[in-house]
Amino acid sequence: MAHLILLESSPVMLAPWHSLSAHVLGNGNSPFEVANGKDVWSYAELNPGHSKLINDAMACDARVAVSAIIEGCSEVFDGLKSLVDVGGGNGTSLGMLVKAFPWIHGVNFDLPHVIATAPKVDGIEHIGGNMFECVPKADAAFLMKLLHDWDDEECIKILKKCREAIPRDRGKIIIVRSVIEEDKDDKLEFVRLMLDMVMMAHTSKGRERTLKQWEYLLGEAGFTRFNVKRIRAVQSVIEAYV
Ligand SMILES: C[S@@+](CC[C@H](N)C(=O)[O-])C[C@H]1O[C@@H](n2cnc3c(N)ncnc32)[C@H](O)[C@@H]1O
């Protein structure tokens, strides 16, 4: 929790909120870029201190979600020999997964400047690169808290690169992210909508998505079927097949 507070209370992350109203009223500029002059990932690349704040905060949040996944839907990992965590940060999530499912070889994939400072984690290999260009091959691709940073067009590009990375016959992707329920009076729904606002402030075009919006993205990227599993967390697990 401390790492999340340190990130969210940093001047870099607080400044964009002052431009959120103008953004919502339609001036089109990303609040993060107005405040900091660059998108969040380019800013992190040039500012190692801020990059560390992001990676530590993501790892802290990831521990909660990954524990809920291991407890609530471990069957998702049955039969997998390898798993690539796309935008996996410093490897915390994948490290927990390969510890729980030790038959899996883990590949943690993120931008080169993130991989350069990632600690060694037993059972996983770190690979640096750009997911818009190529994703390392594995039986399945794991995308946690990733697609909410991007607009539909960018998500479809990332999903297509993941589709190319998995086997055509039995490959799947595992997405861990909020699914906004349009009609439900669920306590966590407010948290999901609040996260949508955070995405507006902190990314260029990111957003949380409803089930219909997830269905659209997956269909456009060439995935023919998917299912959604609820876990004891704000996020759900979406398994999608080619
Ligand atoms: C919101 S963080 C999520 C980290 C991790 N998946 C988690 O759940 O804690 C998004 C990650 O995507 C990575 N990322 C952003 N652009 C990328 C790109 N073009 N290629 C690969 N990774 C990228 C960032 O460096 C960051 O680690």
Automatic annotation (TrEMBL):
Pfam family, one: Methyltransf_2
InterPro entries from the UniProt entry: COMT-like, COMT_C, SAM-dependent_MTases_sf
Keyword Transferase annotated: yes
Protein origin, superkingdom: Eukaryota
Gene3D superfamilies: Vaccinia Virus protein VP39 (3.40.50.150)
UniProt name for this protein: O-methyltransferase C-terminal domain-containing protein
Keywords associated with the record: Methyltransferase, S-adenosyl-L-methionine, Transferase
Domain spans labelled O-methyltransferase C-terminal: 17-223
The keyword Methyltransferase is annotated on this UniProt entry: yes
